[in-house]
């Protein structure tokens, strides 16, 4: 039976198909500040469209649609332009000059990045009374000092409906509660892959966890880096710090405040241990070239212990010398060989995720050597990276099949509409339930998907694998916990008044 299309006076005819779960989620979100939780690829933006159309029907114009990256904001802007039957829709990012932004802010519907929105509200060039609805895409970012938090605070005294959207809640209850508090959320509207009304729209994704062994050359380098790290742990323990044997980056980072306030003599070994841990993690998960580039950048910085680490630490300098020798012999990381093996037998488009920019470059270069049309998708950072338009064009070439492989950092995880990708490869593991769900959601929507996760044995990859599994499991039960928390909060407020 052909799909029915949405019929609404503010939605362009035949532009959006009717999906019951999207309509139901939107109906829930129309009544109070709501956080929509819907896995990647199932159309959170369409849910937002239904809510926006409802607001326009009631004469409640003034919609602000926020998303964390320029390329994602552009995608929302293009979608609304093609589906909403109104003309005054604007796109605002930090690439627009102040005078241009002043004129753009008077449109009925505005798609914008959070930093420029926060700053322009503070500059008072935005009339905040013009908004009746504000949408926070990738709402899980609304923690700490992220711009979403300040914007919600700037607009909280006004009668503005707030709508958050995310693929999953964080696995930590306190962080989930913080998101809801910051965005003044009153209820959750959630669906999962297993929801009965969602199941008809998704295909199964087969996940393969593929272990790889570090080469003997890499294991020797790994040993020297661990010896350099052990030396700092010994010194820190001698200075009275209680550190567990698992040598995680998080416990070192957590010790910083205590050391700077109460144990200054540990500052030098602590910050050196943090640098070595970063170097070791990059080496284990990404290989020789990313490790050497990290070391090069670190060496040129000023900081406690850097000179000593790169000039007199015999273990660390030995690791660098061996890595340079390995690089001259074209040794990179066994994951590269495994990637070549997988792609040799694959004709379809492939999306490869790596958290580290230098690693993205290494992968893309290898794919091009294999005569695979491959491009990188990375964000803009200072003078490096891809500008907004370059990101948009890169994604479009991949969509059109001009590019067969897209190698992406985190900018490719959040919300990008990259359809018909049946193979997704995690080059590294991420200890985050949100990022795991986002990456996985890039496949298995229109046809059966395949997810491949590469794991270097006896490395940070394995640790992140177990942390990630635990967090995904915890996140799966978080919706019920937060719903109970919100209901309890609501009852307390009702009793108070």
User: What's the number of extended β-strand segments?
Assistant: 15
Count of separate DSSP helical elements: 20
How is the main sheet built? Answer: 7 strands, parallel
- Tell the overall outline: globular
Low-confidence stretches: 492-497
The SS-based structural class is: alpha/beta
- The share of residues in helices is 40-55%
Determine the strand fraction and express it as a percent band: 5-15%
* Radius of gyration, whole Å: 24 Å
Distance between the termini: 52 Å
Give the strand order, joined by hyphens, for the main sheet.
3-4-2-5-6-1-7
The overall pLDDT, averaged over residues, is: 88
Provide keyphrases for this structure.
497 residues, alpha/beta, seven-stranded parallel sheet, 13% strand, globular
Descriptive overview:
The structure is a single chain. This protein is of the alpha/beta class. The chain is built from 20 helices and 15 strands. The protein has helices at 20-29, 44-57, 70-83, 98-104, 114-122, 147-155, 173-182, 216-238, 249-254, 256-262, 267-286, 288-299, 306-311, 314-328, 334-344, 357-369, 388-399, 433-440, 460-476, 478-496; strands at 34-37, 63-66, 89-92, 109-112, 133-137, 161-166, 187-190, 205-212, 350-353, 374-377, 380-381, 384-385, 405-408, 423-426, 449-456. The strands form three sheets. It has a seven-stranded parallel β-sheet with strand order 3-4-2-5-6-1-7, sandwiched between helices. Strand 5, helix 6 and strand 6 (161-166) form a beta-alpha-beta unit. Helix 3 crosses helix 17, helix 8 runs antiparallel to helix 11 (267-286) and helix 8 (216-238) runs antiparallel to helix 14 (314-328). It is globular and about 70 Å long. The protein starts with 19 loop residues before the first helix and ends with a helix. The model is unreliable at 492-497 (pLDDT under 50).
């Amino acid at each position: 039976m052909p799909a029915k299309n949405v019929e609404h006076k503010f939605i362009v005819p035949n532009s959006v198909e009717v999906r019951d779960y999207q309509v139901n989620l939107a109906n829930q979100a129309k009544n109070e500040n709501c956080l929509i939780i819907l896995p990647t690829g199932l159309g959170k933006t369409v849910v937002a469209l239904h809510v926006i159309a409802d607001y326009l029907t009631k004469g409640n114009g003034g919609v602000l649609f926020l998303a964390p990256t320029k390329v994602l904001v552009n995608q929302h802007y293009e979608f609304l332009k093609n589906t909403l039957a109104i003309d005054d829709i604007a796109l605002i990012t930090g690439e627009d000059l102040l005078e241009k932004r002043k004129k753009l802010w008077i449109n009925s519907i505005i798609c914008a990045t959070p930093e420029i929105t926060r700053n322009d509200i503070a500059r008072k060039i935005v009339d905040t009374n013009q908004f009746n609805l504000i949408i926070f895409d990738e709402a899980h970012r609304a923690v700490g000092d992220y711009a979403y938090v300040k914007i919600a605070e700037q607009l909280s005294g006004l009668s503005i409906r707030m709508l958050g959207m995310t693929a999953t809640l964080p696995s930590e209850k306190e962080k989930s509660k913080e998101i809801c508090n910051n965005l003044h959320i009153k209820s959750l509207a959630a669906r999962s892959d297993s929801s009965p009304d969602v199941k008809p729209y998704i295909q199964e994704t087969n996940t393969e966890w593929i272990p790889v062994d570090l080469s003997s050359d890499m294991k020797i380098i790994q040993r020297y880096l661990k010896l350099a790290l052990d030396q700092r742990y010994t010194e820190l323990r001698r200075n009275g710090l209680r550190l567990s044997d698992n040598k995680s980056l998080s416990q070192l980072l957590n010790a910083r405040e205590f050391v700077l306030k109460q144990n200054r003599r540990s500052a030098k070994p602590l910050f050196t241990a943090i640098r070595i841990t970063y170097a070791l993690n990059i080496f284990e998960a990404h290989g020789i070239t990313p490790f050497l580039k990290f070391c090069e950048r670190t060496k040129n910085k000023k900081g406690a212990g850097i000179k000593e680490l790169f000039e007199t630490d015999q273990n660390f300098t030995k690791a660098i010398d061996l890595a340079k020798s390995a690089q001259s012999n074209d040794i990179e990381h066994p994951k590269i060989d495994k990637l070549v093996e997988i792609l040799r037998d694959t004709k379809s488009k492939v999306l490869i995720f790596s958290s580290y920019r230098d690693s993205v470059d290494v992968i893309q270069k290898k794919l091009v050597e294999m005569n695979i049309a491959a491009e990188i998708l990375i964000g803009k950072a200072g003078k490096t990276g891809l500008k907004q338009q370059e990101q948009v064009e890169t994604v479009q070439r991949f969509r059109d099949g001009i590019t067969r492989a897209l190698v992406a950092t985190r900018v490719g995880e959040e919300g990008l509409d990259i359809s018909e990708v049946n193979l997704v490869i995690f080059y590294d593991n991420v200890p985050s339930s949100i990022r795991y769900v986002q990456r996985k959601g890039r496949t298995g929507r229109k046809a059966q998907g395949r997810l491949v996760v590469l794991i270097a044995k006896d490395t940070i990859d394995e640790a992140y694998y177990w942390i990630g599994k635990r967090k995904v499991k915890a996140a799966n039960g978080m919706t019920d916990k937060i719903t109970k928390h919100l209901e309890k909060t609501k009852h307390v407020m009702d009793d108070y008044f």
